[in-house]
Prior knowledge:
Layout: H1 10-20, H2 29-33, E1 39-43, E2 46-49, E3 54-57, H3 60-64, H4 73-85, H5 96-107, E4 114-118, H6 121-139, E5 146-150, H7 159-162, H8 168-171, E6 181-184, H9 199-214, E7 219-224, H10 240-250, E8 254-258, E9 282-285, E10 297-301, H11 303-307, H12 331-345, H13 348-369, E11 373-378, E12 383-390, E13 395-396, H14 399-411, E14 414-415, E15 417-418, E16 429-432, H15 440-446
Parallel strand pairs: 3-14, 5-6, 5-7, 7-8, 8-9
Antiparallel strand pairs: 1-2, 2-3, 4-10, 9-10, 11-12, 12-13, 12-16, 15-16
Pyridoxal-5'-phosphate (PLP) binds next to helix 6.
Amino acid sequence: MNSVVNPNDIRGVIEADRAHVWHHLSQHKQYETIDPRVFVEGRGMKLWDAKGAEFLDAVSGGVWTVNVGYGRESIANVIRDQLVKLNYWAGAGGNVPAALFAEKLLTKMPGMSRVYYSNSGSEANEKVYKMVRQIAHRHHGGKKWKILYRDRDYHGTTIGTLATSGQDQRAAMYGPYPDGFVRVPHCLEYRKQWDVGNYGERAADAIEEVILREGADTIGAIVLEPVTAGGGVIVPPKGYWERVQEICRKYEILLHIDEVVCGVGRTGTWFGYQNYGIEPDFVTMAKGVASGYAAISCTVTTERVFDLFKDAPDDTMSYFRDISTFGGCTAGPAAALENMRIIEEEGLLDNTVKMGERLMDNLAGLMERHEVIGDIRGAGLFCGAELVSDRATKEPAEEKKVQAVVAECMAQGVIIGATNRSLPGLNNTLCLSPALIATANDIDAITG
Length: 448
Ligand code: PLP
């Protein structure tokens, strides 16, 4: 057994990382060939690695999470104070930060009234799937149990949420999956599937076609990202959401919006769905809720849904038969409350709108100069540039080309992302999602 590495021995830390840490999304052959980059410090929009190199982070912690930026002492202090007072309670009854954060959060979500806590986006989404199934058993005689999901969307890494992955390659190795999850087409107009006037309405009508094929009485809910993240930063076209809402009401299908990425400010509103005036039955959120300072996710729903769990003939089922052990950690809601205070006090939603416009303008400038950019899309500080090898045919750029752009930016000290490495046909969109604190200088440096 090796001795414990001294944290100041950078070479030792890097070797320990190489030898023992199983990294997310890293090709195993890289372990032998690449010196792993170990990050040691972050402040605002900046990151430093173990060798002292400085980076401007244009992806908020790699996966759209650190919305208020790094090094927030006030969040660290709130967490510390809460931990020494009461770190955890998940038994009957509640705890103070859980109540305070739920109340505050709901002031930003008119129409919603209940918050169910857990730890990750996947878990928050699974809770909805279970709720939908319980409602089906209790109120629809076991019918209305299926859940629709959309091509190119992503909802998590568990077997249940992978069953709703619209990105096949992520799910391919982990089947077979449970029944009852049915795919509807994506709505990316740049990759047209229908030649029609109003593309948004047509793409939504495709959902209705699936409902009619499956039978409306079998379908309980549909899960959709407000802006598809890892599937290519897809902003639904005009008319889409209105029609989706209409269809859900017509067939009594519960609308679940997965705000794991868009939630808590990313698109310039508190939640992505609020850009479209829709009224969901479920909203799930995770990444930006506490900006990565603590693990927390929320499944938020309406009083109408909450009431469906009351008054079962058998009292033992008059509640949601579920628990999340670490849903009782107080650090999450304490950090989340402070995270919201910062967003409000520093006017970060307005900043997101302004800086998002600047980012899109800059991307439009880049597109004029670089043929390789086929399309740009964005909502607030959540932007994508789809790379193609030929603008006329829209042939997606090869993965190595996309990765070369990412690597070149890294070499120049700017960390950008790309959608879903090794997802054939989906891996060609560069992702830019800086923290909501980004300044004009930061935006210009990212696109410089
Ligand atoms: N939903 C969306 C839209 C996501 O992008 C992700 C993760 O990237 C998830 C759910 C899963 O979240 P987690 O990784 O916290 O389980």
